[in-house]
Specification:
The structure is a single chain. This protein is α/β, with parallel strands linked by helices. The chain has 2 domains: 3-110, no CATH class; 159-387, Rossmann fold. The protein is 37% helix and 27% strand. It has helices at residues 3-17, 69-80, 135-139, 154-172, 193-205, 219-232, 264-274, 288-293, 301-304, 307-328, 362-376, 382-387, and strands at residues 21-29, 36-46, 49-58, 62-67, 84-91, 95-100, 105-110, 181-187, 209-216, 237-241, 254-261, 279-285, 331-337, 348-354. Strands 4-3-2-1-5-6-7 form a 7-stranded antiparallel sheet. A 7-stranded mixed sheet has the order 10-9-8-11-12-14-13, sandwiched between helices. The N and C termini lie far apart (71 Å).
């Protein structure tokens, strides 16, 4: 291996031992690993002490692995020997750019881009409910290495904070308050932004013993989120592949289902009701079932003849019926705008908190449900059928 590469590895070792390391990027990959584009390294604190987190970026997926400092040096050496032609080391004392050519390699040093080393802790003092320097936000690309939210991710950042605020208020006004343990299931966890945020809040901010499972159908997202959870030291958080219908959720205290399409929201709500979950949170997506059945009442005929108006009415009626069915099942409910429509058009959220009193008289509630269905010519509704 050339002197330039050895000197580069020496600077890397020095930055780790002196705590001046900021980050390292390996790029310009010419090796045999298909679809691999680059690898970024950052320091994180774990239960085993500080480690380097290697985030590999492929064209269609990402992976995350952690190594101790000594093992990290050998791992970087092997990467430089197996196809990466460029490496950029950022430290608080200087930046080092390594370029590997076919015949020779070159190492250049420049002024430091970063004056301060980013925090590696998962327990930084939080000025907001969500810590912008949290490892998972960096790993998912929402935050920079210094804990600054990226400009293009600010809408997502506001959504995450609003979501955690909603969960906090629901928890504090439910029978779950005072618990030292929580079981949470997130049906349709996707890329995991909100799943990580919920776990981090309850486990690290509220210091509860949390067992949380994120469920999604996309295996590549399950693998990525699982790796990030391990890298972040989130021992109570796991991700599993499955559908809402087929997944055994056990007995969660909180059930979450965000952006489940059409009747998948009803399937999730039913699972939460059937499991006696203390809190149910849903953000429905698509409302096809009721929309297909709806007939315009004579008095609304001239209004609902417009497709967009009928679409909105179908969403309102669908979520309203869901709310009434939750109330019939012993929950206090609210339906509200989760985030402004300029951030996402699918912005309604249904929240339900189990009432500890006896179940309400279902007769009057069912009578009102039947009246709504009759008015719009709705024959069936998925959640009602499941509860029957």
């Amino acid at each position: 291996m050339s002197d330039a590469i050895e000197n580069f590895l020496g600077e890397l070792a020095k930055s780790l031992s002196s705590a001046s390391f900021v980050k390292l990027t390996l790029s310009n990959y010419k090796g045999a690993e298909e679809h691999l584009q680059r690898i970024t390294l950052r320091v994180i604190d774990t239960n085993r002490g500080p480690q380097l987190s290697f985030q590999s970026h492929f064209s269609t997926r990402q992976t995350v692995k952690n190594f101790g400092f000594g093992e990290s040096l050998e791992t970087v050496r092997s990467y430089l020997d197996s196809g990466f032609r460029s490496a950029h080391l950022f430290t608080t004392s200087g930046d080092f750019q390594l370029t590997i050519g076919k015949r020779s390699s070159r190492l250049t040093k420049g002024k430091p881009t970063f004056a301060d080393r980013p925090s590696a802790s998962h327990d930084r003092e939080k000025k907001t409910l969500v810590d912008p320097g949290a490892f998972y936000l960096k790993a998912l690309g929402s935050a920079t290495d210094t804990g600054e939210i990226r400009a293009q991710q600010r809408d997502k950042w506001r959504q995450i904070n609003k979501y955690v605020e909603v969960l906090r208020d629901l928890f504090d006004n439910s029978s779950l308050r005072g618990r030292d343990r929580l079981r949470i299931v997130d049906m349709g966890s996707g890329k995991g932004y909100l799943t990580f945020a919920a776990y981090d809040y309850f486990a690290n901010v509220r210091s509860l013993k949390v067992e949380m499972t994120g469920v999604d159908t996309k295996q590549e997202l399950i693998e990525l989120c699982g790796q990030i959870a391990v890298a972040a030291g989130y021992e109570g958080l796991r991700f599993t592949s499955g559908t809402i219908v087929d997944t055994d959720i056990g007995e969660p205290d909180i059930l979450i289902a965000l952006h489940a399409c059409d009747t998948a929201t009803d399937d999730a709500l039913f699972k939460g009701i059937h499991a006696n979950a203390g809190i149910i949170v849903a953000a429905p997506c698509c409302h096809k079932e009721v929309r297909r059945q709806m007939k315009s009442p004579e008095i609304l005929k001239d209004i609902l003849k417009h497709g967009s108006m009928l679409e909105r009415e179908a969403e309102t009626i669908t979520d309203g019926l869901r709310s009434m069915l939750l109330e019939r099942s012993g929950y206090r409910t609210r339906v509200f705008e989760f985030v402004p429509t300029e951030h996402t058009p699918k912005n309604n959220m249904i929240v339900a908190v189990r009432d500890q009193g006896k179940l309400p008289d279902q007769g009057p509630v069912q009578k009102r449900i039947d009246a709504v269905k009759s008015f719009y010519g709705i024959a069936e509704q998925r959640l009602e059928n499941l509860l029957a």
